[in-house]
Predict the structure of Deferrochelatase.
Amino acid sequence: DHVVAFHGPHQAGIATAAQDRLHFAALDVEPGVTRADLRDLMARWTAASERLTRGLDVGAGASSAALAPPDDTGEAVGLSAANLTVTFGVGPSLFDDRFGLAGRRPAALGPLPALPGDALDRSRSDGDLCVQACADDPQVAFHAVRNLARLGRGVVTVRWSQLGFGRTSSTSTAQATPRNLMGFKDGTANVKAEDARAMDEAVWVGGRPDEPAWLRGGSYLVARRIRMLIEVWDRASLGDQEQTIGRHKRSGAPLGASDEFATLRPASLPPDSHVRLAHPDTNRGARLLRRGYSFTDGLEALGQLDAGLFFLAYMRDPSAFITLQNRLGTSDKLNEYIKHVGSGLWAVLPGVRPGAVLGSALLA
Ligand code: HEM
C-alpha cells in the first residue's frame, strides 16, 4: 500500500528509506502572527500530514462543497500514497523575539557560520520553518507541500522551494546505491537506518544536558543547494574524476579496490579527494545521514545548466556539518566543479503519538 507510518518517536522522512522524489519548502511567518497562531497551524499541519501520508485528501476532500474552494486541491486523487513522508523543522530565526521563544533556542541552533566556498543567494537560503516532502511520485510530493502551504495561508508564506527529481543517497542497506549527476554512486558510506547505534550517536537528539527536552527524538537538518559546474566536469578525464572523488566511477569501490563496500582507507587516497576529506577518521568521527536529491532548474543567466545536488543531511549536532564543510570548502578537489548557492539549518521536531500535535512541547 506504499504507506509510511506518520506516528512514532521520530518524524518519518529521516530514517525512512529515501524515496525517489522531493519537494522541499522553506517558509517564513507573517507579521502579526502569535505563538497561539503557530500552535493552531501545527495542529492543522499534523492532522493534514497524517491524512496525506495515508494517501487521503486533506480535510473534507477534493469535492467537499460546490460553492466553496474544495478543502483539497485534488491533483493526488486516484494516486497511491507513494511512500509520502512530510518532515517539519524550525529555523534559528523562529527564536528571535517575535514569539517569546528565545529562551528555548538550543545553543546549537544558531545561523550557520560563513563557510569557505559559500556563494549563497539569500533568497534561496534560511527560513523560519521548513517542510521536506518525499515520495516515489513527484505529484504526490508537490500536492503535499501545496496543500500544507494553503493551510498556512495568513500565517506563513513560502520563502523558497526546491524540487528534486532523483535521490542521491541510500539510507537503508536494502536499497541499491543511486548515482548523482556526476555519474558517481552516492550514499555508499552513508549512515544507514539499520545501524541503530549510529542513528543514536550521530542522528537523533538525545538526553545530553545541552540538548533541550522539546527536541529529544528530533534532529538537525542542513540543506545546501549545490550547483554542479557540469560543463567543466564533463571535460575532465575519467581518471581525474575518480581522483577527485576517491572512488571508482562504475563500481563505486574505493580507488584500488573492486567492491563498492570494500573498507575505505583514507590515508591511501589522494589528499584532496572528496571521500578522504569527508571520512569520519579525518573529522574526529563526525558523521551525517545524507538524504539529498538531484535537481535541475533549466539554465542560469550565462546559459549554463542550473543543475546539481540539493544536499540534505540530518545530524545530532550541526557542528558535524560545520566541521566537514570547513575542511571540504578549503581543500576538496571537488570545489573545481561545484558551488554552494543556497543554505539553511533547522531543528527537526521529534515525532508524535496519535492524537498529539507536532511541536507542542516547543510552542506550549
Ligand atoms: C561521500 C559526492 C557534497 C559529505 C561522497 C561520495 C560521493 C559524493 C560520490 C562517495 C560515495 C558515498 O560514500 O556516499 C558528493 C557531491 C557533492 C558532495 C557530488 C556536491 C555536489 C558533500 C558535502 C558534504 C559531503 C557538502 C558535507 C559537508 C560526504 C560524506 C561522505 C561523502 C561524509 C562519506 C565519506 C566516507 O565516510 O567515506 N560524496 N558529495 N559531501 N560525502 Fe559527498
